[in-house]
Write a structure and sequence with these properties.
The chain has helices spanning about 15-25, 50-60, 95-105, 130-140; strands at about 1-5, 10, 40-45, 65-75, 85-90, 125-130, 150, 155-160, 165-170. The chain is α+β, with helices and mostly antiparallel strands and about 180 residues long. The chain has one domain: Alpha-Beta Complex (Cyclic Phosphodiesterase, Chain: A). A 5-stranded antiparallel sheet has the order 2-7-4-5-6, sandwiched between helices. The chain has a 4-stranded antiparallel sheet with strand order 3-1-8-9, with helices on one face. Strand 8 (about 155-160) and strand 9 (about 165-170) form a beta hairpin. The longest helix has 14 residues, at about 15-25. It is globular.
Length: about 180
């Protein structure tokens, strides 16, 4: 069983439904397993729930809720699980997500940080066998000139086992 930390962003119902409609058609790997999210701590089996929970709570107290805006889709990791991936990347809020991620990977999670992959804040929207198909879909979506506004307010510590994802604790960012 692996533990991870995600943010299920606060977005409008219309934007949630749009994202899910794209995922239902193009993301057979993760649609129905986990809702649209930003991953802040990637799955690990090398830390106990108690240690992780305490660490995430301590870090979360130093960050205030913040807004983001997404206006584009871009090709993501071309090889994860033998699929290419399409990401929704925030134009605004990008640096705050990076700083939150980086703060989590200090202390007990430091040995878990992957330095071979850059961290790119994203919401996964498609997983397709060929990168060319993801690029074509990115071009189609970006031609729509969409804008998704949302807020990062809470963090979910999730348990990830096989194709089952469940929240085991929810932690709010510090309230101003």
């Amino acid at each position: 069983m692996a533990l991870a930390v995600v943010n299920y962003p606060t977005i409008s119902k219309k934007d949630f439904q749009w994202i899910q409609s794209v995922r239902k058609k193009y993301d057979k790997l993760f649609y129905g397993v986990v809702n649209p999210h930003f991953t802040l701590v990637f799955p690990t089996e090398n830390i106990s729930f108690e240690s992780l929970s305490k660490h995430i709570q301590k870090v979360a107290e130093k960050f205030e809720p913040f807004e983001f805006i997404i206006r584009c889709a871009t090709l993501g990791d071309p090889d994860f699980m033998d699929h290419a991936h399409l990401f929704l990347i925030p134009d605004e809020g990008f640096s705050k997500i990076v700083k939150l991620h980086d703060a989590f990977y200090r202390g007990p999670l430091e040995p878990e940080l992957r330095l071979d992959l850059p961290f790119i804040p994203h919401i996964g929207i498609a997983s397709l066998p060929k990168p060319e198909a993801c690029k074509k879909l990115a071009d189609e979506l970006n031609a729509q000139d969409f804008e998704i506004r949302g807020k990062v307010e809470k963090l979910d510590i999730i348990r990830y086992e096989g194709v089952t994802v469940e929240t085991v604790r929810q932690i709010g960012l510090a309230v101003t």
